[in-house]
Request: fold
Amino acid sequence: MDFAHSLGLTAPEVFLSLSGLVLTLVAAWGGRSSARLATVLAVSALVGAMVITLGQFGSDANGEAFGGLYRADAFSSFAKVLIYIATIACLAVTPKFFVRGNEYRPEYPLLMLFGAIGMGLMVSATDLMTLYIGLELSSLSSYVLASFARSDERSAEAGLKYFVLGALASGILLYGMSLVYGFAGSTSYTMIRPAFDGTLGMGALFGVIFMLAGLAFKISAVPFHMWTPDVYEGAPTPVTAFFASAPKVAAITMTTRVTIEAFGHQSDAWRQIVIFAALASIVVGALGAIGQSNIKRLLAYSSINNVGFILIGLAAGTVAGASAMLVYLTIYVVMSVGSFVAVLMLRDTDGNQVETISDMAGLSQTKPLLAWCLLFLMLSLAGIPPLFGFWGKFVVFQAAVQANLVILAALGIAASVIGAYYYLMIGKVMFFDEPADVVQAKGDLQHWVVLGVATLFVSPLGYLLTKPLGALAGRAASALFQIG
Reply:
């Protein structure tokens, strides 16, 4: 084993780990007053890791590290860049949120940084042990982040719910991994794949089912979605934006690598599970959002709904399907971060967060620019052309049709109509209802920059990126299928 080569392949995680140790010392010596410095350093570290990752993507520096525990390839590089961008955006808009309660501490960016390290390990894992280490590193950071607002009872409740249900999901995942190991004789994806060739025994099938159940919790897919609305509502809004973007990318790409690389010969077995989860997530997410009065809970059901569309690409089980997933993920991350940044800017005269949809009435008259940005993001999430969100759904359905899953695509298209209702309802409240005059506070420069970039990305101008984004996603997806 060439440790120098392995360290080179794991350079993004190594760099972030060293940066995290430095940040730990900064937090210990500087105390609460070093929070902003720690945030700047964390963003700088994430930018550095992103540059390293882009260098690996551009140089085809593919290979396995540490005896096949970790793989650096175009697929993992694509996912990591998305994770780092989402984490940077969430860090940029966070300080303003905690200023009023004087609760911003240097531990916050530190937890985000270590969470990014865990997510990087998740998407590069080619062994069940590496997968679990990365997953738990990310999850442990997330549990603390969810309950970071100590003065808010909802935040403490969200952290506790997330921890308890996360522990349950980890137990289910571990049980499935133990069954897979028992029947395959190895925890390596490259050894599991040939061991599961041919007829799949009952025990091995249960192992696959339990693993997919544990992973479904991490991506908040039905029927393991029950934690999402409560955690999204209770957690601080910047944390909710983080949960809806970076961890979602890591969990979905990790699930894709496991199914394609480890269980690639048993696609007929896991495809049925994925199809059910996809359709159920689309329907439950759409119907669950209709009756919501809290914007954060509505966006939580929206995330469940969008996970269903993403899983349609996975169900295809092809390079085109995986590529469509990555395209959709990219667009979804931008739409999700932009939507939550807009929610962050909804504050009353006392600086309190406005989360009730009825309080947004007449926003187009009091805060027209914010209202138009939020409308664009909502319509893009609904997949209404000519906004860029439509393209994400189009490529996913196209991949499903090419994989002869015409009925799945047709059902997905029909169910997407349900989701359009609650997105349009937000537009109706902002533009046609009488002004409630509740939203008064202004956002700062960071909020407007992130919101402006997200709005431009989902606008028709985003279609200029279809070819380069498709080419990058196709190259990343192809790397996933290079295993024999």
The chain has 22 helices and two strands. The longest helix spans residues 153-184. Residues 287 and 297 are 13 Å apart (CA to CA). Strands lie at 63-65, 70-72.
